[in-house]
Write a structure and sequence with these properties.
4 copies of one chain form a homotetramer. Chain A folds into 2 domains: about 40-195, Probable inorganic polyphosphate/atp-NAD kinase, domain 1 (Rossmann fold, 3-Layer(aba) Sandwich); about 195-335, Probable inorganic polyphosphate/atp-NAD kinase, domain 2 (Tumour Suppressor Smad4, Sandwich). In chain A, about 15% of the residues lie in helices and about 35% in strands. Chain A contains 6 helices and 25 strands. In chain A, strands 13, 14, 15, 16, 17, 19, 20, 21, 22, 23 and 24 form an 11-stranded antiparallel sheet that branches. In chain A, strands 7-6-5-8-9-10 form a 6-stranded parallel sheet, with helices on both faces. In chain A, strands 4, 11, 12 and 25 form a 4-stranded antiparallel sheet that branches. The longest helix of chain A is centred in the first third of the chain and has 14 residues, at about 60-75.
């Protein structure tokens, strides 16, 4: 063949950002340079100095709580922050490295706290997120409450786990990003940055959102106690995608994929997959299968003007609000992740969690077909 | 509060690459800089000059074929390449801009062809992928065969669609990547880079893969016509994840999520989501739900040494091979995408396809509950 | 072999009734004598004389209503009963064969009405059932409202259909039950006797049911608008079967299997199958699959004493009542069927309905796998 | 109201049999007289004298086998029949009450054997069914192999269970069928008469079935190892119901509902429900939901003349046969049940089995939603 070589081309993101994964090789061929998602390490530039410790309400875990506070202060030499109601309990124990804060300082807390230790269940982690708002420091969560997806660390090994966070336990193989003459050696711990959804309630005719919520698991629009099905219009970037007649519709994060989503028949999605799940709840059409959308979608769920009933929206199972005909919620990926420190690594932790919580793919003994 | 500010930190990929999405702000807070996936544009640096046109076998589409060849050569001034067997049919039609190639030049074709036009169904697109191997130019696929997911363009508008590819039809809003004094204006067409899976067959005791395949839809390991269930071990990065007793197990791409995967009960995944789907086929455990994994996983499906039968592996529904006890397939994301040109954009095209092919979420008329 | 013959045996129902289907042959072998369910005919012993005609609320169907009244009175010579509010509309039309009734005669209506004609949708049929209570005459339901499962007859052919009910249209092949010298020839129409469920609300500590309902579709116990899952104990004949944590639990009839049940993931059950469906709604256990139980079960759904919230029970989507911890509903097959006249026969009508309402098993065009 | 009473009517089965469940009351109202299915007792008219004992192949259970043979002969005074290959093993043990049979007497065995004892798993029970053909005596099956649905009796209590079969353990409350002056008191054991399906293979153009099989679990028509989907036409009483494009289609009994059917997504059906299950395997239409049909249906699954491949039919997972385009299988309820003796009663045994085999509705610990 004696033809001229083919033309050169760009692959560009339509919003002008660079396409980091998709590359055009010198030969002009298209390639993926690397996976778009990957295991991540948290590496301290300077040693962390202040840690916040949260405890489930009640006196049940008081002993473990005090052990952890002592280890953090005496062994690791850290300053510790606790919630005011917990601080009261500690008076007389003479732990001078423990401090608390005033309510009006709550919104500056994120500037001073290097990481958070949770002693409780998944609910306590949601509480931590609500304390800090958008700028949430890394969290380590110990299994001390009911079975949870996010409480990956055994309390029995708490000293090793806490030491690992401060000093790191995994060497970075190679890194072109960080110069080796830094003060700290390049050791870190695996961390998962969990996506949240930013949800706005829009009232019909309004020009601004009436309220805004961030959810870690899911936002659900449903008929609640109304006798009739919700009639919900689904838009993506203001384009009508479908009309749904169902008990409800859910938008979930990968983290939430193993919560209510799995009860509604959705698939389980690893938290490293950058995606938003659209899952119907008891749809009255046989062919409304769950769909999994990229993280750049901007979705709107609107109560159809001809719906027979209002609907109810819930954020992570709480904060129920009624929506009237014509009202809607707008949902997009939040820029503010929930960073959770891993036990082993992201994949091992996740498969462990779905086996622990669902006996995923397990069976006492296999039934022979014949 | 009069505390010192918190420590600075890095978020690093454990393989040393940069974390392009996850950023540490000057304040030390963690944020997602942008969605990890995004709409993409194909923008030519220099005008394309050579196009390949593929046609479904048989004379059925001969008229449309010749119309397209004429338009490409006479109106758009492009050189056209066709397959040898099609070239024979054109003799006497005096289209001097049409050329063909010798079999032994097949592996250089990718260096000369700017884009590909398919007149047929989804099967023809798979044929194009097999002609070119890893380095596949962008493809536009016209709906002229049976209903398909990938044939997004109406033939009736072929002139407009082909003109748009060459000259672009969407302005890039802003771009810090490409200087504006380039020869070409910054106009392009939406394009989807579809992930493929790289699949290796490993025979027990072997030190290298026995065979390698790339699939666009899915790889399936199943019992085939054997009376007994497959007993399959699933590994991720050499770590045992689960043992499955089922008719089979499938690993699918997002593109393949709407093919065999949906028949097996899997969710539909948008092709911009960088993920690999692990879907069981008729599992004998009630709690083996489909899971969706990040694109960095490296999976191995191994026939359990104590399986009662061998198994069969198929690649995109073809190339069946028998696997004995201890044999396995190793699967990871391929660096070589299948680039398909969009009609509207990625999201509109995809929702259109699932409605066209599955009547997704539609119902003739809603049944009132009472 | 020179052995003595085996012993004789009985197969008896444990409640002392005869086993009509299961027989012991003279040889001592066990056999099913016949299917337990079968196509049924309605055959009049004496010609029917009085028919009730029900119409959907509003004036929309007034013209069809009057046409039907005229045909029944003038052509078929029947007396017609209508609801009082419809009777008022007819004044001045001089149809002397039309009569109405006083409210206090409502509970005797079933002694005088031979059959019922419904002009409307499935909702009107439920209204008819509520008018008559337990003793419901056969109903013919014309498709004049929204799409329904029970409205099997086309209005266009109303004269033929109504004639067929009165005079019969299908000869009985042979019958050992009815002597041939009866006044009427043995012709009839196919009829389906649809099972209802008898549902009692029991308040904790009560010695008698607080309320009783009969449902044609389903009874649903759910969390309603409560934020927490229902925790429901399921008993059969006072024996604990399972504890369920879910959005709710439904008990449905075969008729109801294609209503809410199918939205919750249940199977479609033909109305001739004598069964009760136990279907979870969004269960939080992956392995709570729907189960289909025989019609002799006596089920109780009890709100667990340690449930975090009360629950809501609904009967055919209406009559919501709140249940507190310890309250329960007891459900068993009702002796009072809803008899609906068939268009063709039971199986043809049913497959027709699931195709009409769900496009069951249909697809615009099949997607080739490759 | 001063109207004449309504007309009298019959409800007749269209095949001339009586309608045993549906009754017309003297008032003319329709009622169900009783549930159509019910718990059943096996009651001996004369004491059983001869029992057959089957054992799983191999020496593994030899000790238990001999214990059972001794108890039956010495304690219960029964004659025992064993298979010839087992008889050989017993020589020298001097159990004179044990006998065997010649191969050519196999088809008379059912006339002499009062009941069968199985020591093994579900597979052994299928073996018993194949030994006896249509006229199968009642079977008691002890749990001594892998986990099974039909092996309901614990071996530890074998003496009590075997005594109960011979002497009965449950009094019949009242019975209008059996006079009380019979030789035997009215005591029995619960028994389940399990439906089988009679399946005929019809070759295109044939005038008689090519082969006939009886299945206890299911008959499956599938693509086997063929690359293309099966295209299967489904007929009921020679009327086309639907065309299916799928990996396969299954017809299952209620007994089989918890075997392959549940893996394909079907519901679990109690064995007292007289029904036949039509379940698709990986259908390529989103709205082909499983359906449950009455026991009087006569189904035909025909390979479509325009199918791209032949198909494979399997009976209880065995006896694979290839079907060409135009060939079909015809399936209806068999008159010959498989009678299995219950441990507790039908409902307790069944819920026990689905919990034992599937952990139905169980979960280690419930995950709180928040």
């Amino acid at each position: 063949v004696q033809w001229p070589p083919k033309s050169e081309l760009y692959i560009l993101r339509s919003d002008g950002h660079s396409c980091t994964r998709e590359t055009v090789q010198p030969s002009g061929n298209l390639q993926f340079a690397c996976p778009s998602s990957q295991q991540q390490l948290l590496v301290w530039k300077t040693r962390p100095r202040r840690v916040m410790v949260l405890k489930k309400l009640g006196d049940e875990l008081l002993e473990e709580y005090i052990d952890v506070l002592r280890f953090l202060g005496e062994d690791l030499g850290l300053s510790v922050v606790v919630e005011p109601h917990d601080y009261a309990v500690l008076s007389g124990l003479c732990m001078k490295w423990v401090d608390t804060y005033a309510e009006h300082d709550l919104d500056q807390l994120h500037s001073f706290v290097d990481f958070i230790v949770c002693l409780g269940g998944d609910g306590l982690l949601l509480h931590a997120a609500s304390l800090f708002g958008p700028a949430l420091p890394p969290i380590i969560s110990f299994k001390l409450g009911s079975l949870g997806f996010l409480t990956t660390h055994n309390y029995a090994d708490y000293q090793r786990h806490l030491h690992n966070i401060v000093y790191g336990c995994r060497e970075l193989e190679s890194c072109q990003l960080v110069s080796s003459d830094d003060e700290m050696p390049l050791r870190g711990v695996h961390i998962t940055l969990r996506m949240r959804l930013c949800c706005e309630i829009w009232r019909q005719g309004g020009t601004a959102p009436a309220e805004t919520f961030e959810v870690l698991n899911e936002v659900v629009l449903s008929r609640g106690a109304n006798p009739y099905l919700s009639k919900i219009e689904v838009y993506e970037h203001d384009q009508l995608i479908t009309k749904v007649q169902a008990d409800g519709v859910m938008l979930a994060t990968p983290t939430g994929s193993t919560a209510y989503n799995v009860a509604a028949g959705g698939s389980m999605v690893h938290p490293s997959v950058p995606a938003i799940l659209l899952t119907p709840i008891c749809p009255h059409s046989l062919n409304f299968r769950p769909v999994i959308l990229p993280d750049y979608v901007e979705l709107e769920l609107r109560i159809s003007p001809d719906a027979r009933c209002p609907a109810v929206v819930q954020f992570d199972g709480r904060d129920g609000r009624e929506l009237q005909q014509g009202d809607s919620i707008r949902v997009r990926m939040s820029p503010n992740p929930v960073p959770t420190i891993n036990n082993a690594d992201q994949t091992t932790d996740w498969f462990g969690a779905i086996q622990r919580c669902f006996q995923w793919s397990e069976r006492v003994e296999q039934l022979p077909i014949d």
